[in-house]
Amino acid sequence: MSGNRRRHGVFLLLFLLIFTCGYGQKTKEQLQREKQENLRKIQETERILQETTGQKQNTIGELNALNQRIQAQEDLISSIRNEVLLLNEEIEENNLIIDALEQDVNNLKQEYGAMIYATYKANKGFNKLTFLFSAKSFNQFLMRLRYMEQYAEVREQQARQIKRVQETLSDQVTLIESKMSDKNILLADQIQRNKELASLKQNQSKIVSSLQRREKEIKKDLEETRKAVAKLDRMINDIIKAEIEKARLAEKTTNEAATRLASDFAQNKSKLPWPVSGFVTQKFGKQAHPVFKNVTQDNHWITIQTKKEEKVKSVFNGQITTVAFVPLIGNTVIVSHGEYYSVYAGLRDVFVRSGQQVTTNQELGNILTNKDGVSELKFEIRKNIAPLDPQQWLKRN
Fold this sequence. Notes:
Number of domains: 2
Largest sheet: 10 strands, antiparallel
Number of strands: 12
């Protein structure tokens, strides 16, 4: 009975360890998927970074790409660290299981040895036949025979139980050796990634210093860009106001279609596809400059830095309201989705025309790469003329 309680205790321990291992934390599979996604982001960011590196002088675009590359590297290291922590927990849990199994094997062996010894003492001076034929009646003979058969079966079960527990113990030892090997590989990877991160941060410091030495030149360029953006903003407001007035005068059926389209657009908040691949270098709203902390700007858009020749795509069904060119920014496409508008500024070539119907993910044009080798899209979403934060509307990248 005591042996059964011990074995039940081992199996209860196994159950609890398996249950608690997967509760309230990421699984190994989730961490590995996260690591693969971080590696994908590093690869994409590295390509964009290489396109902005090697220019005659360091640029804000290069710094933005490098900042994103550092963030991706830190995310990767965090994924590796979490995977190591998970392995540490699994190794500790397996050690507990091994200790419990070893104790169970010892207990079973002691019980088996005690059983053999008891049999030896009970049979001392007698053999099985003598024991059987010394019965005083036939019924007693049958009972002794049945007892011997049952006793032999119990011994066989005990031996099989010892073998099963030993096999489980061997499997656990093999498993923990595999986990230790995985852990050593991860630790070596973590060391290498930390070295890469240190090199990236050293390069980041050099670029910031270089840009700070060119403060007057950069601030002059920034002021010119601000003027261009203000011109773009006025143009967008005028176009949308004209569209609102046009809608007010339109037929009822036209207004109903626009209302349905706007409703569909609103229902897809946080589900819209990204207009280009890449990463956000300027967020919506009031933002500090990446180098000059006393310089801020209030953005009605997000800036997405991407690869050369990247195709810019519509985020939803709609109609091309305007195609226009703005100096220093490039071509701009405005798409109406009922009372909502998406704006794509910074295109080199445009594949659509005003009045044309477009669908989700339809190519509008390709991205413009500026003289510094930076390819970036200014992307806006508006409800009538009110700017909205585009990142709240796009899928999580």
